[in-house]
Amino acid sequence: MQKRFKQLPLACAGIVLGLTLAGCGNLSKIDSQGRSASPVWPDLSMAMQPKGSYPDLYHLSMVKAGMNKDQLYELIGRPHFQEGFYVREWDYLFHIPTAEGETLCQYKILFDRHRTARTLLWRTPACEEAAKLAMRNVKKPS
C-alpha cells in the first residue's frame, strides 16, 4: 500500500511532463534558421479568435524578419492560435481590405532558434497580394 503512494507523485509528475512537452511542439518542422520546407497551417476552427482581427495596416507593414517576439506582439498582437510553450511559429487570422470588401487571411511567422522572426508567410498568394496592396495604400499616422 505504501509503495503505491510513493509511486503516485512520480506517476503524476510524468503525466504533467508529458502534457507540457506535448504543448511545446510546433505545427511545422522548422530548422534552426527559422525556415520550413512545408509549413503547416492550423485549422481555422482551432483559432482562439475564430473571427480573426482587423490589423492596423501601418503596424502590419512594419513587421519584418529580424524582429523579436516582444516587438511583434506590440505591432500585431498575440497569435490567434494556441501553439503551446516556447513555440517557433505564430499564426494569425487577419481581415485584409480588398476592392470587393475584405478577405480573411492566414499569416504565419517562423522564428529561428534564438526566437527571432525569420520567415513571414501568407497562406495564399491572393492574400499576400491583397495585403501588399492594402499596406502600400496606408498612410502613416500623424
Structure description:
The protein has a domain at 44-137: Beta-lactamase Inhibitory Protein, Chain:B, domain 1, CATH 3.30.1450. The chain is 33% helix and 19% strand. The protein has four helices and three strands; from the N terminus they run H-H-H-E-E-E-H. The protein has helices at 2-22, 57-62, 69-76, 125-136, and strands at 89-98, 101-111, 117-122. A hairpin with a 2-residue loop joins strand 1 and strand 2. The radius of gyration is 19 Å and the shape is globular. The termini are far apart. Mean pLDDT is 86; it is low at 11-24. Residues 52-118 form the Outer membrane protein assembly factor BamE domain. This is Cell envelope protein SmpA. Residues 1-22 form the signal peptide.
What's the gist of this structure?
The protein has 142 residues and is an alpha+beta fold.
Strand content: 15-25%
Which CATH class of the domain at 44-137 is shown?
Alpha Beta
Q: Could you describe the largest sheet, including whether it forms a barrel?
A: 3 strands, antiparallel
In CATH terms, what is the fold-level topology of the domain at 44-137?
A: Beta-lactamase Inhibitory Protein, Chain:B, domain 1
